[in-house]
From TrEMBL:
Gene3D superfamilies: Globins
Protein name in UniProt: Globin domain-containing protein
Family to which the UniProt record says this protein belongs: Belongs to the globin family.
Record-linked InterPro entries: Globin (IPR000971), Globin-like_sf (IPR009050), Globin/Proto (IPR012292), Mb-like_M (IPR044399)
Molecular functions (GO terms): heme binding; oxygen binding; oxygen carrier activity
Protein keywords: Heme, Iron, Metal-binding, Oxygen transport, Transport
SUPFAM superfamilies assigned: Globin-like
Sequence ranges assigned to domain Globin in this UniProt record: 1-135
Length: 148
């Protein structure tokens, strides 16, 4: 298996430590998310099981990115249906930041500089792939562009 760098190992440790010392992050993440985007709670139709299934997929995706089981390119397929459901780019980007912030705040003094750097790198890798996918889909949405 490929050797993981310090940052990726630190991301995995942060998730593991949170699980051991704080518990399940799902409720805290959605609390943060819905405080900023109250309309999103309506978009989920207040359906907790769906929210929970989604968050376990999102957290799994972050672990798979950190341990290189998957790549950024293979982690953006869900954007197609989310855009169709009117989930905004800001919501998508903020969700990942809010997951990181929830883990960081929950770990408190156990959060390390390596974790900070590892999360920063992971999100820095993912965001351009997300942006490209969103731009392509928005191009389709607005119809064929005139070629001059
Ligand atoms: C705000 C309104 C949103 C709604 C209504 C919504 C809805 C859903 C639904 C219904 C699923 C399928 C869950 C299942 O039954 O397995 C899903 C999956 C998922 N959502 Fe969302 N979502 C929202 C926002 C977001 C945001 C902001 C992100 C950004 C991280 C996101 C990322 C994902 C991912 C990665 C999956 C898993 C896809 C898969 O593995 O199949 N969603 N979402």
């Amino acid at each position: 298996m490929q050797q993981l760098d310090t940052g990726d190992t630190a991301v995995l440790s942060s998730l593991e430590l949170y699980g051991e010392h704080v518990g399940e992050p799902t409720a805290a993440i959605y609390q943060r998310f819905f405080a900023k985007y109250p309309e999103a709670e309506e978009m989920f139709a207040h359906d907790r099981p769906t929210e929970e299934r989604m968050m376990s997929s999102v957290l799994m995706m972050i672990s798979d990115l950190a341990d290189h089981t998957t790549s950024a390119q293979h982690s953006i397929f869900w954007i197609t249906d989310h855009l169709a459901w009117d989930v905004s780019r800001d919501m998508m980007f903020d969700m990942f930041e809010m997951i990181r912030d929830t883990i960081r705040d929950g770990l408190g003094g156990e959060w390390t500089a390596d974790m900070d750097a590892g999360w920063h790198d992971l999100l820095d890798h993912l965001k351009p792939a997300m942006d490209q996918q969103i731009a392509e889909l928005e191009g389709y949405r607005s119809g064929p562009q005139a070629v001059s």
